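Let us practice reading a record.
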Amino acid sequence: MFNGALAGRALWCLTLVGDGLVAPEALFAELGERIRDVRQGHDGALYLLTDDEAGRIVRIHT
């Protein structure tokens, strides 16, 4: 599961096993921007909406 983080300024990859969370991993923290939204496109890629002044959209190839 992927989750954007405003305060954490990263895309979080969360692995769930049973009822528990295993090894959360921060991705794309080097962008230095808050992640407002995460969506999967029809092409299978992930799209991140950041709160950059220009409202940047980042496409992540999967």
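A brief commentary: The chain has a mean pLDDT of 91.
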